[in-house]
Design brief:
Number of strands: 9
Largest sheet: 5 strands, mixed
Distance between the termini: 28 Å
Structural class: alpha+beta
Strand order of the largest sheet: 3-5-6-9-8
CATH topology: Heat Shock Protein 90
CATH architecture: 2-Layer Sandwich
Low-confidence stretches: none
Radius of gyration: 18 Å
Order of helices and strands: EHHEHEEHEEHEHEE
Number of helices: 6
CATH superfamily: Histidine kinase-like ATPase, C-terminal domain
Strand content: 15-25%
Length: 214
């Protein structure tokens, strides 16, 4: 049975909060582990290791929160525009903690906030397409005819299962949960921004494109 997905606003908010918590729980847990090592160990080597772990994990948690603030948050008032340089900065910070290498090409322009939020969420989908690592490349053109092309390359690269159903807002075998809600939210952003999204395999690469809906 298939049909249009209509998530209650409270359900969507709860699922997105769970998605953000899933991202930051690992680095926060690592910080706690590091503090416990410092508290319990007398070895200088172990304490130095723990300090390094805390520093790396704190940077990672901060990067993920800054990314979430822009990708999922209000990001300014209605009709606000966001500098793509700011989007690139938070995207690079987020991807520094991921398995895939990351590259970004875009003009230095302002774009409507929903378009920028859409781009950041597409990066999450592209990253999910290479769970064993590889590369994620982002190319942006615009602003008059905004177009996003993301290429994910790596071992066993595949279009995430939730993409084909939840991005267009169709309920199929993939149910909306804390993991797949991000695909649903990406589709909702695309529709709000008047954009059409496609994804497919080109040789062994996953290519995700977003362009103005016709």
């Amino acid at each position: 049975m298939t049909g249009q997905v209509e998530l209650d606003a409270l359900d969507l908010a709860a699922l997105l909060c769970s998605r953000v918590c899933h991202d930051i729980i690992s680095p926060v847990g690592a910080i706690i582990n590091g503090l416990e090592v410092i508290d319990e160990e007398n070895s200088d080597d172990m304490r130095e290791f723990a300090f390094g772990l805390i520093q790396r994990s704190a940077r990672q948690a901060s990067a993920k929160l800054q990314f979430a603030r822009l990708a999922f948050g209000a990001a300014g008032s209605a009709g606000a525009e966001i500098d793509l340089a700011d989007a690139e900065k938070v995207a690079r910070g987020y991807m520094d903690g991921e398995k895939a290498d990351f590259s970004w090409e875009s003009p230095p322009v302002l774009m409507p906030k929903n378009l920028v939020k859409l781009l950041l969420n597409l990066i999450l989908l592209a990253n999910a397409a290479v769970p064993r690592g590889g590369t994620v490349k982002v190319a942006v053109s615009g602003p008059d005819e905004p177009r996003f092309v993301l290429k994910a390359s790596g071992p066993s690269a595949r279009v995430p299962p939730a993409f084909q159903t939840l991005v267009p807002g169709i309920l199929g075998e993939v149910q909306v949960d804390a993991q797949s809600v991000q695909a649903y939210y990406t589709g909702a952003l695309a529709r709000a921004a008047g954009m059409s999204i496609s994804a497919g395999l080109a040789d062994a690469d996953v290519v995700i494109e977003a362009a103005p809906a016709r």
